[in-house]
Amino acid sequence: MAADAGGRGPGIPRVLSIAGSDPSGGAGIQADLKSIAAMGGYGMCAITALTAQNTRGVTAVHTPPPEFLAAQLEAVGSDITVDAVKIGMLADTEVIRTVGEWLARTRPGVVVLDPVMVATSGDRLLAPDAEDALRCLLAQAHLVTPNLPELAALLGEPTAASWDKALDQGRRLSERTGAVVLVKGGHLEGAACPDALVDARVAGSGSVVELPGTRVDTRNTHGTGCSLSSALATVQARTGDWARSLAVVKEWLRGALEASDELEVGHGHGPVHHFHHARAAVPLAPGEFAESLWRDAEKVRAEIAALPFVSELSAGTLSPEDFAYYLAQDALYLNAYSRVLARASALAPSEAEQAFWAEGSRVCLEVEAELHRTWLAHHPAEASQRAMGPVTKAYTDHLLAVSASGSYAVLAAAVLPCYWIYAEVGAALSGRHAARADPGDHPYGAWIGTYADEAFAEATRRAVAFTDAAGRSGSGAERAAMREAFGASAVYEREFFDAPRRFA
Ligand SMILES: Nc1ncnc2c1ncn2[C@@H]1O[C@H](COP(=O)(O)OP(=O)(O)O)[C@@H](O)[C@H]1O
Ligand SMILES: Cc1ncc(COP(=O)(O)OP(=O)(O)O)c(N)n1
To answer: What residue stretches are annotated with the Pyridoxamine kinase/Phosphomethylpyrimidine kinase domain (predicted)?
Structure first.
């Protein structure tokens, strides 16, 4: 291939992906088209193979006749100027031969070859007898982007166990092929996730340009190699400088990995969020974010409504021991919750929010004291038993951990279920109680009456509104963290109501 892959300047690069299809949209041509668009290019694709796969793995591969691939390449190439090509899954020898012939004829200015062999799931995407043909094709690329197992397989060696050994393998592959090799750190162990461009044609230390990176803690890495290589082809068509292109793309990919939780796609290794950097086309309406949190917790809320604790409390058949356990744990919980609300007040971005959470914190202590003065005074044994039960401990540890993380928005989401779910349970209980023919006889009637407190209902509405506003103005990554914190607290609410049955 030509020694250097030049850039065409500020126009919109027309980038052709020659790759396989992933119907789940995370890898293959689907990832390539998103990445090319995310980098400001115009994406096209010639499909080498169709896979049936999702975030858990590949279940089938169909490779159309090579003549059909040749027809796709001819259709694109005969009409459209191709500024850059990204090559991904090639399936078998015939496909490789077809692509090789087309490259030799058209000689595109930028060719990035991602030598896809085996998916992360362990499924083969290249026939074992096609590896030699793939080795030969590498010489027709400007940049080759193997992951560590692919790099080793291309050299016929074991996978490098250290970064230095990987760089050495990259240098030897570059020597053999004449292409620049991007050595990728995605498969390394540990917190570091570097990448390095290795060009054996350059003498001395300039032959390795390393970009350090830290590992994003996520399992959503499906299609990172596809996304990286197609994004690099796109940016390179504009800059003509691999090191500059890699710096831009690595930063973007990091953001895509960080925001990947927002997508909630699949149950295995999910895709990255290719458009994390683009602002939402339709901004969230007031209330919309909070409603989505509420909807996400629908199953847990239904489970709470169906708990024996709730129905027995409502019917008055709850054992006094279970009730006393609940009250004692509630008192302990409220004390910790008060501190967490005080932290929300300290982090709050406005005086209104600061005052709101501070007042919530004060009220918690007041309710805790009231519990001891009234209900727990009738259960001195429970009241004197000050140890936190396992659920109370886990719930308050979760809240304290979120409060230590320093994000006001995430903390607001974490404390919200205690308002919102409690208010929902209270409304159901007090509604049922008020409808009874003999509400006066109920052993827990006075307690249930406290649920109907209008001041608490109003505080809940304000807590919902503040959390919603924090979510709407936050980043995508922040909203994902808020969802996680809200969901975890909702589960702890369920466990808290169920704890008397398990631990009293
Ligand atoms: N958890 C992660 N955090 C940050 N970057 C990552 C992570 N996983 C992969 N990458 C980056 O994604 C790109 C693809 O890397 P890699 O996973 O090694 O390739 P492949 O997807 O082909 O197996 C590289 O730039 C690598 O540094
Ligand atoms: C159709 C298709 N092409 C390539 C891959 C491999 O994707 P890659 O980005 O190398 O990484 P994983 O998805 O395997 O993590 C694929 N799965 N499907």
So the answer is: 22-273
Q: What is the percent of the chain where pLDDT is above 90?
A: 80
Question: Mean pLDDT, to the nearest integer, of 322-346?
Answer: 94
Residue 122 per-residue DSSP state = S
Digit-coded pLDDT (tens) for 400-413: 999 998 899 999 99
Does residue 167 contact residue 157 with C-beta atoms inside 8 Å?
no
Number of DSSP helices (H) and strands (E) in the chain, helices first? 19, 9
Which helix (H) or strand (E) segment holds residue 496: the answer is helix 476-503
Specify the CATH architecture of the domain 288-503: Up-down Bundle (1.20)
Maximum pairwise Cα distance, the chain: 92
What would the pLDDT profile of 64-104 be if each residue is shown by its tens digit?
999 999 999 999 999 999 999 999 999 999 999 999 999 99
Query: How is the chain split into domains, by residue range?
Result: 14-262, 288-503
> From ligand 1's centre to the CA of 221, what distance in Å?
7
The first and second tokens of residue 300, run together, are 């847990």
- Its pTM stands at 0.73
Tell me the CATH number of domain 14-262, given options 3.40.50.720, 3.40.220.10, 3.40.50.300, 3.40.1190.20: 3.40.1190.20
* Mean pLDDT of the 7-22 span: 87
Q: Active-site residues: which are they?
A: 184, 221, 223-226
Residues in contact with ligand 2 (CB, 6 Å cut-off): 19-22, 27-28, 51, 88-89, 116, 119-120, 125, 221-226
